[in-house]
Specification:
It contains three helices and 17 strands. Strand 2 and strand 3 form a beta hairpin. The longest helix has 6 residues. About 7% of the residues have low confidence.
Length: 397
Amino acid sequence: MSALPAGAQDAAAITADAPEAAALPPAKPEQKAPGPIKTRVLWSQFTDIVVSGDADDTLRYGGKIDAYVDIGGSTVGLDDSISLHVHPEFKYGESSNGEVGLIPANTLLFYPDEGDVFDLDINITKRWKSGISLTVGKLNILDLAARIPVQGGGGHEGFQNLALALPPSAIVPGSITGAMLNVPTDKLIYRVLVFDPELQSRRSGLEDPFSKGVGVLASATLPVKIGGKRGYYALKIAGSTRSEVAADALPAALIPAPGSSFGNRKGEISAILAFDQYIFEDSQNPGKGIGIFGQIYMSNGDPTFLDASGFIGISGNPKGRPTDRFGLTYFRYSLADGLVDVLNNRVALEDEEGVEAFYTVQVGKPFRLTANLQVVDSAVSVRDVGVTAGLRLTTAF
């Protein structure tokens, strides 16, 4: 059975809000636009193996290359308050996704699709001096998740399981077309995202836009200081007018048969409470520290295939080794009761829960080596608890 794809969270606020997901608040948008042209490339290579459980103990290798190109408006005679973002990405090789749990254990080797695949995101942003920004086009939600300060996200850094790298919501896809408005104020950071609820991976987004409805994500993030340590607390509400289950975000075995009692109700809504709170900040290395994070997610179910989820963890940079990073988290996800009921004669399902731990070491200037361990009790009842161990080598250009 393939891994559970899943919608994203609201990473952006990041801290960040990631698509509907994510836990955190978005950092305040930069007041200053980037220079005329900026480029960055990240290449992560993975090897992993299931060391315990009933899955094959095959050593697998794969990789993901992401290029980020930001072109300021002055390049074409406009103001640099306008910028074009181009993000080509290429995924190759194999992973253990779907071998143990339904939720993909390796986010980067899950998106944008199975096998060796290429995808392209293009969007344009207008920034105002007030800090307000508007982005329109095709957006990769993993880019938003990568900005989360404590929890982290995106897959090149930090946690690898989709449960943390891009927390599933089943409403906001991992790749969208639409518009995103960020409005920072003195007390709160607001974000509104209007999007096509259909997954846009390997699509331009212009084929049949909004043919399955329209989705909206609204979030408010409160930046605070507790004991002098920064924290971000967010409330996120997401919904869509879709009247069918998000089949592009489910393994074939979990898609209800035509005419079943699940996936026919029009409209869906979910709410998320999330936080990221530093408990230690390194005064000699700004931006470094150790913090705790967590999230609670609830939806009204049908046609949303997830009805509840949550996680809590700790992550950061060890004191004395500011370029290293570690993380430890527990997560639990629940499929909607209605979906479990209609699939009961096909496969017995339960909540999926697990633990993920990682440690990253800087190896020379361009290389970061991460050891990763995941223990997962699958949503597929007949599967044994599985343990997956892996390595990730990330190179920045």
